[in-house]
């Protein structure tokens, strides 16, 4: 659950993923993806005091869900856009590049360049080392001044998760195994209410060519995603697969049902080679599934982009462990830079707030990454 304030201490008058309180003094706004913990304040009847930039998919969702937000603009994936804005007669300019975050349909990360600073805001993301190596060459050794990081699983007790492809295949196999026994055999998918399951449902629907029943009160969460109507239904009778938080006894009459519980939190200390599902009891099977990066993936990500400072976007009530993990990762990175005789780019310091660059570090900032720039002036 995001705890990011919405504001960037390095860049004045812009906000991302929070649209209330102090953020209403901002001039331009960004939305990384359409999960409710990233959309606080969008329901304000007056809308926003400036344009909202997001992906094409998220724009459709925002327009339908929040018609009060009038000015919603699209950031094309991978293309750098220059945006100018004014406050108190002073002009500001940022160059923003949206990158895929692989968290849910339409989710993006934001690379924001302001003056000589490079800021990378990940939103929520799930990227494996293989994703980085094959598709994210522009982030390799980017050395952003700050990474605002989705730290949901920055804990050593979550070293790895199966890939989403592996988890979805397992879930589909379990569904097919059960529903092929007889027409009376049905499957219930039980997902924690606060998480969006759009990608999972779309993949199950696509692979099994079946619709998933979603109760009326949940429909609103999914209905605005493009193509979602192909894989969900509120007609109990036409479905063999049901998305339910709980179900009343007798709801399915004489049907035999299997409950599948995809989740990440349950899978503490899971490592590759271990089974990705576990029978809870004779009716219920848990499957490891995460749309956030694991500890190892976060470490790989930090090593890949080599930030000078890291801010955590998800901080739990007891944050010490997260900051300790971050300290260790940055410490190792510093050590390996020293061994390779590279300039030290990060100083690891446990100050319970954020990481700071080495105070003696005066190497010139790199040129901003070169991409064709589209200019937009407010
Ligand atoms: Zn999310």
TrEMBL record:
Keyword set, alphabetical order: DNA damage, DNA recombination, DNA repair, Endonuclease, Exonuclease, Hydrolase, Nuclease, Nucleus
GO BP annotation list: DNA recombination; double-strand break repair via nonhomologous end joining; interstrand cross-link repair; telomere maintenance
DNA repair metallo-beta-lactamase domain residues: 257-314
Pfam families with a match to the protein in the record: DRMBL
Localization annotation: Nucleus
One Gene Ontology MF term: damaged DNA binding
Gene Ontology cellular-component annotations: nucleus
Top-rank taxon: Eukaryota
Family, per entry: Belongs to the DNA repair metallo-beta-lactamase (DRMBL) family.
Descriptive protein name: Protein artemis
């Amino acid at each position: 659950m995001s705890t990011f304030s919405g504001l960037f201490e390095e860049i004045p008058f812009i906000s991302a993923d929070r649209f209330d309180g102090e953020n209403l003094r901002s001039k331009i706004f960004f939305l990384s993806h359409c999960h409710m913990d990233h959309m606080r304040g969008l329901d304000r009847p007056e809308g926003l005091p400036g344009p909202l930039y997001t992906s094409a998919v998220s724009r459709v969702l925002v327009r339908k869900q929040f018609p009060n937000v009038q000015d919603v603009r699209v950031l094309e994936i991978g293309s750098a856009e220059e945006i100018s804005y004014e406050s108190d007669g002073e002009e500001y300019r940022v160059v923003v590049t949206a990158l895929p975050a692989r968290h849910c349909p339409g989710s993006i990360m934001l690379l924001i360049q302001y003056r000589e600073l490079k800021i990378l805001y990940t939103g929520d993301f799930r990227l494996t080392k293989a994703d980085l190596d094959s598709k994210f060459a522009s982030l390799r050794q980017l050395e952003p001044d700050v990474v605002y990081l989705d730290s949901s699983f920055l804990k050593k007790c979550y070293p790895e998760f199966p890939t989403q492809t592996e988890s979805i295949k397992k879930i589909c196999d379990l569904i097919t195994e059960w529903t092929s026994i007889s027409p009376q055999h049905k499957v219930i998918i039980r997902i924690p209410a606060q998480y969006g399951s759009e990608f999972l449902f779309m993949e199950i629907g696509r692979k099994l060519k079946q619709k998933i029943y979603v109760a009326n009160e949940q429909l609103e969460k999914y209905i605005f995603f493009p193509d979602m109507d192909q894989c969900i239904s509120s007609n109990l009778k036409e479905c063999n697969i049901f998305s339910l938080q709980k179900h009343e006894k007798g709801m399915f009459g004489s049907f035999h049902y299997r409950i599948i519980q995809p989740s990440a939190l349950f899978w503490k200390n899971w490592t590759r080679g271990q089974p990705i599902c576990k029978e809870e009891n004779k009716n219920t099977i848990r499957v490891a599934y995460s749309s956030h990066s694991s500890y190892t993936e976060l470490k790989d990500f930090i090593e890949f982009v080599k930030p000078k400072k890291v801010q955590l976007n998800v901080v739990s009530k007891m944050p010490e462990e997260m900051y300790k993990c971050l300290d260790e990762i940055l410490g190792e990175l510093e050590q390996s830079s020293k061994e390779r005789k590279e300039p030290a780019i990060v100083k690891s310091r446990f100050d319970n707030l954020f990481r700071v660059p080495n105070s003696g570090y005066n190497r010139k900032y790199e040129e901003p990454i070169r991409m064709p720039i589209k200019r937009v002036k407010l």
